[in-house]
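Quality-control log, excerpt.
Job 1 of 2 completed; input and output follow.
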Amino acid sequence: MKPVVLSLAPLPADLVKALIMQTPDLPDFEVVSGGGMSREELSEAFSRAHAVMGDYTFQCPISSDLLEKALVLKLIQQPSVGYQHIDVDACTRRRIPVANTPGANTASVAEHTLACGLSLLRKLSAANQGMREGRWEQLSLNPSELAGKIWGLVGFGRIGRAVSLRLRPFAPARVLYFDIVRLSAEEEAEFGAVYSPFHDLMSQSDIVSLHAPLTEATRYMIGDEELILMKPSAYLINVARGELVDEDALARALKEGRIAGAAVDVFSREPLPAENPLLKAAGNNLLLSPHVAGVSTEAAGRIITMAAANIARVLKGLEPLYVVNDTYAASEAERGTE
């Protein structure tokens, strides 16, 4: 029986197959679309699937109930960097690799971060609103330049480093970074960033952008205490994970004028519910976007191509790349108890 690829992504099955077939010398395989299936139907589809293409809209969670019959499944490939809708622990227990597409949207997120910082400094939202309402506020907006400012990066992985490199032409006074792993002096010079303890970074920076993963250690890492540390003239940008920020605390800081503004692309609940406190704090000093920092035509192409190529590897009997769970360790642990 030929292998089955179950696609949960909102893409035509024919397109998914064509993308996978860009890799040469594949065995014959079938692509089945899971769109519109009930959970019971999905469970049955998982029982026949050799590989699963995840849903990049995060609307189809992959939970333990779908994995109960997944006896031939060799890979769950998520076509995005984030994979929070997948029960990775349940996959690990069943020795099912879960892979994502790291780095595919790095440029898009980095450019969005800079766009947010420049827009906040230049007061573009207020300028646009004033023009639409018939005001000519040429001398009252008081926009600022990025040159000479201190930009703080919380998290210095691929995206944090990409932002740091893109800041160079703007001649900031300093680029600070905080990460649990400090770079070598040579690497810091390469990326033009200086290590700073977290609270020092929060108090010294004119712009703070978040690029950290969501873990128990980073959940709500920005709350009242951290926002109080920031300069009244400073801005906060969150393009990482919504749960890094206490949204109630940020709304209070904005309404009370304790920081100059913020740009938020990610939220604790998505799509954004009407009761989110940031909507009540929304003004010209708050830029909200619907989780689009990593979205671009170019990034989408890279993501889906990486995902399809990784599925092709598994269909050819090769080990998948970009695996986020340690299925080998789980296998060893289970063998030790047999």
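Job 2 of 2 completed; input and output follow.
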Amino acid sequence: MIIDSLPYQLAQALTSAPEADSTNLLFVGFTALVLFGLFWWLIGSSIMLYIQSVASNATVGLTSLVFMRIRKVNPTAIVTARITAKKAGIDITSDKLEAHYLAGGHVMRVVQAVINANKANIPLSFDTACAIDLAGRDVLDAVQTSVNPKVIDVPGANSGVATIDGVAQNGIQLKVKARVTVRTNLARLVGGATENTIVARVGQGIVSAIGAAKTHMEVLENPKSISRTVLDAGLDVGTAFEILSIDIADVIVGENIGARLQTDQAEAQKKIAQAEAEQRRAMAVAREQEMVALVAENRAKVVLAEAEIPLAMAEAFRAGKLGVMDYYNMRNVQADTEMRNAIASPEAVDSKSKVQ
């Protein structure tokens, strides 16, 4: 039985062997493909960049390129930046470029800024350029502004006002527009004030210069006096810019502020005088009412005193100090007095003339 089954087992083994070899071959081929892809991702592109850097005389080590990918650094950007700097005569190591890239900086713009500054004979080191870039400033624009100064309008377009208004000592208002030519001061770019500070300081200087003029005609005759005064004030201290010139673009005569202030002051004084007069009138009316009340009070006292006369006469009659003849004589005197008063009154004279 065993001998009879051997040919069958051998035939089965021979038929199953090719299937096993093909499976193993497929697995080996897939593994090799994966390993080659991983190798090409790590080494292949790095080899091309390495060859490019060596050919450009700006060598970046192959090991450094491989570890850049592991550290999630774009090796193409580093190699390109180093080659660009090297061709411009500036040797910047790949470690510095990689460190700035990891810090979140713009490597290529920093390299271009250093190259531009070097060509323009402006002292700017790579470390200083990195510091400016990491501070949030556009270092390339700063270098370009340092080479090619720019003009700032005063007041600014976003300030909400069209002119800088000042008042001369004679009360005439002047409306001024100015243009300030500035150049970037790279040494003060980190921590220096921005354009808004320049605009504010120049506006303040223009107002002060106009206010120092005795008449507005002095400013109209010599607008450069404003520029000279503002420039001498050193308004660019502590800013990221250096003021090269201040040019007065336009001077417009405004209102007569002095006359308007005098008019307003006169109107205010008029209202004060009216209020004081009204106060005195009210006091006079109150005093008059007090006097009327006082007269009425005194009249009441007289009436009270006259009311006591009959009582005193009665008391004199009872005491025997006054006789009947004395009483009639007193009544005759009273009647004669009343007659004289009636004749002397204007009403009596008018009635007499009417009767006639």
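Post-run check on job 2. The first strand starts at residue 150 and ends at 154.
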